[in-house]
């Protein structure tokens, strides 16, 4: 495990230990809901169980509980063992079915399962540029043919990426930011442009089916943050699969 991955693991373990299930959102990402509406919600409920969906960076289950409640076979992996404990308790409390494991995104720990859909919502952005590429290759490896990949990811058009008082690990990955008008960053956070992400996916066996940028403002409109919404379909194995 690289030092950056260890740092990310420590950051999240501390957060979950301090705040528990309140550390992350309780309700699903809006763009994920839109994606599911475009691609899966018209499938008859009786057929949904056959569709295997994995969320990398599942956290405490803000997205996963929705997938399970809608009848899909739900899986999750997270680097934080504490988050996995919390999501299992959430599912048990609400009588939901799911399969969750602690693990590394670069070696997804469901050895005998290939997925119809893999979801990445602000999770692989914690990997640096080199490991981000390995992550996409691992996603390709674990998807069925014609399986889908959905990602919600920080854009380089965000003000945060353009601030000067930051420390970079590589051309895409920030590891430190101290700015009075922004969020403090002390763990890896990677940004990409839309074209950069599209090319990364295309070069690793994916066809792009949807690519948009969404912008929100924070701190009374003082800071702009832009999110990439990317959908890809596996059309061939990546070069390393």
Give your account of this protein's structure.
This protein is α/β, with parallel strands linked by helices and 241 residues long. It has one domain: Vaccinia Virus protein VP39 (Rossmann fold, 3-Layer(aba) Sandwich). The protein is 30% helix and 29% strand. The strands form two sheets. The chain has a seven-stranded mixed beta sheet with strand order 3-2-1-4-5-10-9, with helices on both faces. The longest helix is centred in the N-terminal third of the chain and has 17 residues. The protein starts with a helix and ends in a 7-residue tail after the last strand.
Features:
10 strands, Rossmann fold
SSE order, one letter for each helix or strand: HHEHEHEEHEHEEEHEE
What structural class should be given to the helix and strand makeup? alpha/beta
CATH architecture: 3-Layer(aba) Sandwich
Spatial strand arrangement across the major sheet:
3-2-1-4-5-10-9
Number of domains: 1
Largest sheet: 7 strands, mixed
Within CATH, the superfamily carries the name: Vaccinia Virus protein VP39
CATH fold label: Rossmann fold
Shape: globular
Strand content: 25-35%
Distance between the termini: 21 Å
Q: With helices defined by DSSP (H or I, 4 residues minimum), what is the helix count?
A: 7
Tell me how many strands there are. Answer: 10
Model regions low in confidence, pLDDT < 50 over at least 5 residues: none
Q: Rg, please?
A: 17 Å
> What is the helix content?
25-40%
